[in-house]
Amino acid sequence: MKNQNSKQLPKRNLIVTIGLVLWFLLILGRLVELQVFKHAQLKNEAIDQNRYLREIWPTRGTIRDCQGKILAQSLSVPSLFLARGKNEENSSLLEKITALKSLIPLSSREWQRIRNRIDNGDRFIWIKRKISWEDCEKVKQAKIPGIFVQMESKRFYPLGAHLAHVLGGVDIDDRGLSGVEYKYNNFLQGKKGRILILRDALHRKYDLEVIEPAQPGQDLILTIDSNIQYIAERELEKAIFENQACWGTVIVSRPSTGEILAMASYPDYDPNNFATAEPSALINRAIQENFEPGSAFKLILAAAALELKPDIFHRTYDCSIGYFSIGGLSIRDHRRFNLLSFPEVFIHSSNVGAIQVALEIGRDYLYSWIKKFGLGEKTGIDLPGEETGILRPPNSWTVHTLPYLAIGYEISVTAIQLLQVINAIANQGLLFPPRILKSLEGPEGIQKLPSSPPVRILSSYVAREITDNILAKVVDLGTGKAAAIDGFPPAGKTGTAQKYDPWLKTYSSSRHRSIFIGFAPFDKPAISIVVVIDEPKAGRYYGGEVAAPVFREIGRRVLLYLGEIPRFKPEKITLASSENWRNHHQP
Amino acid sequence: MKSREIFRRGSFDRPLFIITLLLIIIGLIMIFSSSALVAAEKYHQPFHFLIEQLKGAILGFILMAIFVFIRRDLFRWPAFIFGLLILCLLLLSLCFLMPPLSGANRWVMAFGITFQPSELTKISLILFIAFYLEKKKDRLDELKTILPLLAVIGLFVLLILREPDLGTAVLILFISFLLLFIGGIRFRHLAGAGALALTLFLLYFLQLPREDYRWQRWEAFISPDLHRDRAAFQILQSKLAVGTGGLIGVGLGESTRKLYFLPCAHTDFIYAIIGEEFGLIGSLLVLALYLLFFWRGWHIARNATNYTHRLVAYGLTLMICCQALLNISIVLAILPTKGAPLPLISYGRSALLCQLVAVGLLLNISQRKVSSLIIK
C-alpha cells in the first residue's frame, strides 16, 4: 500500500502543478490582453468617468450712462433644479415637487411644465429659475433630497422703467432681446470658457483645469445722461397726463456730435420684468413709430426753397384767400392771413403759403431735398428695430401729393429722423448721424467708438438764415411762443397733424398729433429736442400749445444742468443759488 | 533502513522567506497608496490602514519565528491538531453570537481585538487532513475511511457558508479536494464527493433570493453590460484600473480608480491598483512572486521527510497560491466576484497573521532533513 501511495503522490502532484501553472498562464494572458491590447480603450473609458467638461458662463457687461452711473448690471441669483437619482421613479420626483410647492409659489403653468419634464424621464429639470434669496433660503432649510441650487446671473436694472426702451431687456438666459442689450449683445455677453473638472466617484471635485478662461463681456458707456433722461421722462409723462394723450416721445441730443442725451418713450415698462411687459409698451416711439410730421415738415420745404432760390426770402405770398384748392381738395389755414413774406409763411405756419412755395420749387426738387435730409431711410442710430418712415417716390405721386407734402402729410417720419433734420440746421448744415453708444470698456481698456464724419447737406448760409429769420422767430413771434426759454432763446418749429382715420379714410378733425422740434440757444446750440405727443384729448392739440411747453421745460432744466449760462437773469426761473436763497429767506 | 529526521534550526528555506518578505513589503506600500485618501477622510489619518497592517505584520513575523523554531513535531501531535480544530469550531460558532458587521458574522470581537476565525480554519483543516491521511494511509482506498474526513470538512464549510463567506468556503473546499487528491484518495470517491458538494452548492445557490448580492454578482459576471451601475460596477472599475495601467503604469499613488470608483481598493481589489499604478511590469512581478512561492513550497514538500509533512507543505502552499490565483482571477474578471483577499498583500490582519503562521510552518518543515550520518 505504501508503495502505491509513493507512486501516486508524484504523479498526482504533477497534475496539480500543471493545473496551477496553466492557471498562472491564463492570468498572464488576461493581463496582456487588458494591459497591452485593450489599454487605450480602457484608459479612455476611465478618463471619461472622472473628467467633466463644463462651460463657464462669462459675466455680462455692465451698461453705464455717460457719467458712469450703472444702468444695467448682472447679479448673482439662485435657481432651483431637480436632479433625478439613479433609477428614481416619477412618483418620487412628484412627491418632492409637491413638498416644494408649499415653500415657493409655482404657477399652474410652471407646475405643468415640470410634470411634463418628469414624465419625459428627464434627468435634469429646472424648477424655477432666478428666484429670490428668501425663497432659496426656505428651500435650503427644507433639505429636500434631489433639489439643488445653481447660481446664475440675472440682469438688474437699478433705475427700473427709466430708459427702458433704450436699454431693452434680456431673456431668462440673459440674451439681449431689444434695445442696446440686443444691439450690442455680442459685446456684452463675452465669451464662454471651458473648464475641466476631475471628480472622484462621489462626484466631488479634486482638481480643476481651466482650458479656456471665460472672457467677461465688455461694458457699454452710453451717450445718455441719466439726469437728462430723468428730466425728459418727467416732462413727457406730465404732458401725457395733462393732455390725456395716447403716447409720446422726447429725444434730447447734442447737435454738435449727434450724441443722444435722453430718449424717452411713453408708455414704458420695467426691463426687470421684460417678459410680462405689455407689447404696446415695448415700442420705442422715438424710432419705431412712423407718423406724419405736419407743419414741422415745412422746415425742409423752407431749406429746399432757399437753396434753390436765395432771393425767395424777399418774396411775398398772398394768403388772404385762406384756403387752397386743387383737384377737389381744399386745404385751409388755421387762421386768416393777409400777404405773408417768405419767412412769415413759416413763422406763422401758413398752409396756403407753404403750398405756393412747394408748387414753385416743384416736386422733383423737393423730393431730392427730402432724401438729402435722410427721410425715408433709417438714420442708422445704433438701436434695433428702427423704422424708415414712408416716402413714396415721385412717380407714384398723385396730384394731391405735392400740396399735401408741403404741409407735412403723405409722408411719414420717425422722431429720430426729425431730430436729425433739426440737428443739421443747428449745425449750420452739417449732419451728424445720431448715436447712443459712447464707448466700450473691456479688460483691454476703453475703446472709443469712431463717430462717423458729418455730411454737409445744407450750405451754412441757408442754415443760418433759417435759424435766425425763421426758427428763432417762430418762438418769438409765431406759433411756438410757448417754447420760449427764459435766458436761452431757442429756435424751433411747431407741427400739428390731423391723424388719418383708416375707418373714415380721411384725416380726422378730432384726433391730432402735436410736435415741436428745436434747439437752444439758437445762435450757439447746446441741445436739440424733439417732442411728439400723440392724440392730446384735453382740448388743446396744437404743437405750439401741447409740445412747445414740454420743449421749454426740458430745455430750461437741461441747459441749466449742463452749465449753460443764461443771456440775462431769468425772471421766471428760480435758480438754486445761495444769493437767491438769502434773498428769499432774509427779508 | 529507517531514515532518521534531524531538525536543523535556522536552516530554513531562505528564498521562501525572502519571497514572503517581498510580498509583505509590496503589500504595505500598496495598502498605503490605495487607502491613504480614504483613511484620511474617514479616520483623519492617512496612515491608518498602513499602521494597522504593520502591527499585524510585526505580530505575524513574531509568530512565524516562534513556529519556525519549534523543534517538536507539531504536525504529528494529536493534541495540537485536535485542539486547533476544536478551537476553530468554537470560534466559528462564536461568530454567530457576535453582532453582524456589514451583514455578516465573520468576526469574533473580544478585548478590542477582532479576529476572523475562517483564516485559522484553513490552516487547521490542512493540518487535520494531513494528520488524518497519515493515520489511515493504509486504508485510503476504502470509502469508510474518508467519509468521516469529508464530514469534518463539510461541517466547517457549512459553518463558513452560513457566516456567510462564500469565497472562503469555496477556497477551503477547493484546497481540501486538491489535498485529498494529492494525498492519494481514490479518484472515484473524490469525484463522488465533488459531485455531492457541487449539487449542494447549486441547491444552496438556487434557494437564495434573486435580489441577493451573490446572484447579482453572478449575473454581473455573465452579462456585465446589463448591470453597469450595480454589481458589475466593481468588475468594470477593476478592469478599467488594470487596463489604464498599460505597460508601465501611471506611477505610485497616481491611481484614479481608488478615488471611490473601485470599492475595496485596499482589500480584495488591491491587485487592480497594483495593475493601474505599475502596469504590466508590476502585475507580472507580483504574479511571478506567487509562482516562485509555489515553486519553493513544492520544493519543500518534495524534500519533506515524511508523508504528513509533505501533505502539510502541499496544503499550505496551495492555500497561499490558490487564494492568490483566485483573487487575481476575480480582479481580472476571469471568475465571478466573491470575497477573497490577495494573500500577504491585501489589508486584513487576521488573514496576514494566519498566512505568516502558514509560512512559518512551511519554513519549519524545510528545516527537517534526513540525516545521512545515521544511515551509515
Describe the protein.
The complex is a heterodimer of chains A (587) and B (376). Chain A is of the alpha+beta class and 587 residues long. The model of chain A is unreliable at 1-7 (pLDDT under 50). With 376 residues, chain B is mainly alpha-helical. Chain B has one domain. The mean pLDDT of chain B is 87. Chain A binds chain B through residues 1-2, 4-5, 8-9, 12-13, 15-17, 20, 23-24, 26-28, 30-32, 34-36, 38-39, 41-43, 45-46, 49-50, 86-87, 198, 200-202, 206, and chain B through 137-138, 140, 178, 181-184, 229, 239-247, 256-257, 259-261, 275, 279-280, 283-284, 287, 290-291, 294, 298, 301-302, 307, 310, 314, 318, 321-322, 325, 328-329, 332, 334.
In short:
Chain A has 587 residues and is an alpha+beta fold. Chain A folds into three domains: 46-65 and 163-218, Penicillin-binding protein 2a (Domain 2) (Alpha-Beta Complex); 78-156; 226-561, DD-peptidase/beta-lactamase superfamily (Beta-lactamase, 3-Layer(aba) Sandwich).
- Count of distinct strands of chain A: 23
Number of helical stretches of at least 4 residues of chain B: 13
CATH architecture field of the largest domain in chain A: 3-Layer(aba) Sandwich
> Which series of helices and strands of chain B comes N to C?
EHHHEEHHHHHHHHHEH
**Weakly predicted, low-confidence segments of chain A:** 1-7
| Rg of chain B, alpha carbons | 21 Å
